[in-house]
Amino acid sequence: MIYFKKLRWRNFLSTGNQFIEVDLAKSPSTLIIGSNGSGKSTLLDALCFSLFNRPFRTIKKEQLVNTINNNDCEIQVEFETNGKQYKVIRGIKPNVFEIYCNNVLINQDASNVDYQNMLEQNILKCNYRAFCQVVILGSSSYEPFMHLRARYRREVVEEILDIRVFSHMDLLLRHKQAELSKNIIDVRHRYDLMTEKYELQKAHFEQIQDRDNTDIEDRRQQLKENEQSNYEYNQKLQLLNEKIISTKAEIWGGDKFTRKSKELDKLESKIEHKLDREKKDVEFFENNDNCPTCTQPIDLKFKQTKIYEGKKKISDLEEGLAQLVKEADKTNKKIDEYKRIERKLNELDISVAKVNTSISEINRHSNRLDVEIQKLESEKENTGKIAYELDQLKEELKTINIDKEKVIEEKKYIDIAREILNDTGVKAKIIKKYLPIMNNLINKYLQSMDFFVNFHLDEEFNETIKSRFRDTFVYNSFSEGEKLRIDLALLFTWRTIAKMKNSTNTNLLILDEIFDSSLDGAGTEDFFKILKSLSSENTFIISHKGDILFDKFTNIIKFEKYKNFTRLA
Question: Which of 408, 456, 494, 565 is the most buried (most CB within 10 A)?
Fold first, then answer.
């Protein structure tokens, strides 16, 4: 049971720098009154924020700090559970989150999320949604049980029945299951690799056992053949090298003919150019009697002399050109011969390269044969060692197989455990056991409030409501006042079940403005009858109808605004 004692807050919403403190265990019934905006519902927000880091109403965290002072927002709640005294301090500007057990600060090395989970799971043993369903019923920001989706309804009931531990166990098993699945993949991979290695080694061992000296002799015979081939290729290589030397001698000095051919080509070009110029001069004097520039007649004797000399030069040049052409032809023939010899030399070089390649291949093959012969001889000598290694591999394979079977078996048990722990397993059986009790209690409380219907929750927590005339309804079929009676009946039922299970059982019950809207006079009287029947309760009722409710409470707290700050009147 969680026994709440004190709640204090400052600089929270409209509260100023001075702490407001409420003794949660002082009186069995406390009426909280005050005008609109005086801060009556701040108690709900402070309590929920201190425990669950979220206010009861839909207010952003940064809006919780008093806007005038704008710092040092702090909420403290004190309670007792399992024989230990706890104090939770939560603050904004600066951010504070501390949990004290018997006045000793609980280690804060964990993250805020883990620290909060520890508070909810290990100390309070309930989450925000379950806490609100058992402790709070309010008109503002309150989400009744019947408004929750099926999964959240189930979550609340699991918290109240103290079977959420099965969900936590299921979550742990889910992680373990995932880990085992990965381990199974790994161990199967190891087993497959080891099996492959064993089979290869076994085949190798059997091959060695079946092998005789023929393999070694075959390779030695190949070595002899390679040696003979190598000798023949080396002989051929020697002959080719000799041919290359003699061929190179044939083309010694071939470059001078190439140079001579170039010189003859240049000289031929010059003679042709000069010959062409002389022919043009002779043609000029033959065809012209007057100078084309000055139009004066050309001297006949001079003209005849120029024509004679020109024709003499042309004859000499043509004769020289003919000799030059003959010499050039001889030179070109020599060049063609040298080119033929060079092609032959290139062919010899290619042949040498091919012979060298063949020799290299023969040598590489011979080296491989030497290695194989050594390996074969070594393996024949070490069959005992290989047999021992094979036995070791076999034993290792057995060990891995045992590990594999063990992991598979463990996962099988985990799978079975998860089947037991999931929503259709042990939790479903427990819920099924308690459902008749829940339904009986709900109907009992409804009848106490003069609401005579047959309310039934099924295993999926869907409601069926039948009237005395057997008409079938759902929650939303009723008026707001009738819905409130159903909400109250559920609240009292959850509190009764919590006491039976000692799970989310608490002394605290807070009802926000339930008399101010939907609950009529008769309903109010029926409600107080139920409250009087409850034992060990500290009930807080927030209301605007203070004047008509004073006589029904043993304690009254009034909130008021003073200089824009909330205080206790």
Answer: 494
